[in-house]
Amino acid sequence: MNILIIGGTGGIGLAIIQQLLIIKPHANIHATFFRHQPQYQHSQLHWHHLDISLENQIAALAKQLPQLDVVINAVGMLHTAKHQPEKSIQQFDVAFFQTNIQINTLPSLLIAKHFMTPLKTSPRSYFITISAKVGSIEDNKLGGWISYRSSKAALNMAIKTISIEWQTKLPHCCVIAFHPGTTASALSEPFQRNVAPHKLFTPTYTAQCLLHLLAILTPQETGQFLSYNGNILPW
Ligand SMILES: NC(=O)c1ccc[n+]([C@@H]2O[C@H](COP(=O)([O-])OP(=O)(O)OC[C@H]3O[C@@H](n4cnc5c(N)ncnc54)[C@H](OP(=O)(O)O)[C@@H]3O)[C@@H](O)[C@H]2O)c1
User: Cα of 214 to ligand 1 centre, how many Å?
Assistant: First the structure.
């Protein structure tokens, strides 16, 4: 089994790798890093440097990995050194919005474009992208975080659209948008104070939830937005 984790140095991405090495001891795991040199090493883990905002780098990686059973995109951003997510439209900044789209939306489109062929060679494959419930338009009761919400809503539309196309082109592939719940990581760090302790998940718990879903989902369940507990979320 060949598995690719994009964003393997992130809180959730690294936990997925570590759990996979336990539950799939014979799998070949490929993972990508960007700014953080990976510290975690294992004989079945192969690291690749990747800037997910550059299509030529994604295309080159896909050529190196001609057969994959699972691709998980765990890349994402919520804040930068200069910008926190907006509380008001008055804080809206074009460059920050574009960065959200570049890191949260475009990568899954480009990954699907270039990894369609590697995923086609597997008798049953999975393309999972980590989204966020705040990207659900129907679920939006609070407002705020307009760039992050918009980038994840656009991501969700992309995932749904890809899943429909692949029902005929890759009928054995299950395409899912996954909501991890609030998980302790660098991304959520500035917002953890207001989260009840039992609602702040460890990356290990979140990874176990995702991998549990991976074990039970079939291609017939493609095109869903699923929460960590398996609940179907409204797009
Ligand atoms: N944590 C939460 O509470 C939470 C809640 C809802 C949804 N999510 C979603 O879950 C996903 C994972 O989040 P996380 O909490 O694990 O975040 P994180 O710890 O901040 O990890 C982010 C990952 O994205 C990678 N990355 C950022 N820019 C990149 C680029 N240009 N090219 C390649 N890789 C890049 C980082 O690589 P380097 O570190 O090597 O640069 C890192 O591996 C995100 O999509 C996030 O929106 C998280």
Answer: 20
Q: Which fold has domain 2-227?
A: Rossmann fold (3.40.50)
- Where do the domains of the chain lie? 2-227
7 CB less than 6 Å from ligand 1? yes
Six token digits for residue 229: 């507990």
- C-alpha distance from residue 182 to each of 13, 59, 90 (Å): 14, 32, 26
Helix (H) or strand (E) holding 64: helix 55-64
How far does residue 177's CA lie from ligand 1's centre (Å)? 15
Model pLDDT, residue 194? 87
Q: What distance in Å separates the CA atoms of residue 180 and residue 123, rounded to the nearest whole number?
A: 27
Rounded Cα gap, residues 221 and 233, in angstroms: 13
- Is residue 16 within 8 Å of 5, Cβ to Cβ? yes
Ligand 1 atom having least distance to the Cα of 182: 3
- Tens of pLDDT, residue by residue over 210-230, are 999 999 999 999 999 999 999
Q: Is 184 in the pocket of ligand 1 (CB under 6 A)?
A: no
Q: What are the tens digits of pLDDT across the range 58-116? A: 999 999 999 999 999 999 999 999 999 999 999 999 999 999 999 999 999 999 999 99
Q: For residue range 179-203, what is the model confidence (pLDDT) as tens digits?
A: 999 999 999 999 999 899 999 999 9
